[in-house]
Amino acid sequence: MTRPDRSVRRLSARRIWRMLHLSLALTVGAAFALIGASGAMLVLKEPLLTLEVGREIVKPPRMPGRPDADADMWIARASEHYPELRVMGANAPGAGFLPGNAAIVFGRQPPGDLGVVFVHPQSGEPLGLFAFDQSWFAAVVNLHRRLLLPSSLGADVVGWCGIGLAASLLTGAYLWWPRQRKWWRSFSIGSSAAGRRHLIEWHGVSAAYLLAPMLVLAATGVALTKPQWLGLPGPAPAKPTSQATPPSCAAGNDLSGALSAAARAQPGRQIVGVFLPRGPAGAYQIRLRSPASIPSDLTVEVRTGCATPVVETVETDSALRREWLNPLHTDLRLGLLGQAVVFICGMALPALYATGLWLWIWRRRNG
Q1: 268, 287, 313: which is the final residue of a domain?
Q2: Residue 69 resides in a domain
Q3: 191 in a domain, yes or no?
Q4: Distance separating alpha carbons of residues 115 and 88, to the nearest angstrom
Q5: What is the pLDDT of residues 52-109, one digit of tens each?
Q6: Are both 149 and 182 inside the same structural domain?
Q7: What total of structural domains would you count in the chain?
């Protein structure tokens, strides 16, 4: 029996890789495109939110020489203006889940949707109530994180899409890999290429330039969505630490007293967030930030008014997400340049899907 020569085996392997690449594109390519486009939009999340809410609300003008008010004032003023809002907590400007220069007070509106009150951080004046769950901004976030599917199912689907995207990129790289052409020619579109050939070269060359950052975004996306799939610990529950020194206790057990206890427990740090207790036996959860932007958390029990530091059960997971996974997925740890690359990668996914689909349809029609 004669063995097939090397060129035949190579052709067979190439056909297999092409079928795998094509199968991924035809089955989940649209999902790749949606995740990429929504991710690109989230790079521009502040302009996106400003377009929906208004610049005067998202970025209120500062009052020179006046310090920011405390969180208890933000919550009190927001509750006065919007008594229907069941307040859950508040965040300082830039420390919460929404961009901008305004403080936010968040809670539940009837019948349970998340509502956000934008508050001027210095005067405490409420600037407007934002129905977050009904907003376009929330739709973009949910589209990127779970494709608008129910929470658990959506996370699973997006996690598999991240793995599929990595496989699609690698199979595409194999198909593009230069065999007989010179390297520098492989990274440019031939001047004589026209029509369908021009589109094929554009599809391959553009993906080749973006291969590395796209693989990073796919891997970090899976790690953030389904860390256990990569052998990483998931978000760990927080718990108070045991202290040799007595905790700092406030004179009162209301929010003002809790903030005072937190400030005394960790002087020199700025209070940037607070979650209200769920009942008389609960505790205030207070987040602080050092001048070096290192976060720390305290709990202040309602019954005692005493502040106790909080640690993550798995500290390495918290540090990994905060210092590596989130920054890599947001801007590749490259600041504004990285944000530009992430935006281009996000917009490239629907473009690559559209060109690949068109090439497949053309080939089906013309043989």
Answers
A1: 313
A2: no
A3: yes
A4: 10
A5: 999 999 999 999 999 999 999 999 999 999 999 999 999 999 999 999 999 999 999 9
A6: yes
A7: 2
